[in-house]
Amino acid sequence: MPDLVIIGAGETAEIAYWYFTRHTLHEVVAFSSEREFIKDDLLLGLPVVPFEKLEETHPPSEHIIYVAISFAELNRVRTRLCNEAMRKGYTLTSYISPHAFVWEDVEIGYNCFIFEGNVIQYHAKIGNNITLWSGNHIGHRTVIGDNCFISSHVVISGFCDVGENCFFGVNSCVIDGLKIAKDCYIGAGAVVVKDTEEGKVYIGNPARIYKDSLP
Question: Is it the case that residue 52 has pLDDT exceeding 80?
Answer without folding.
Answer: yes
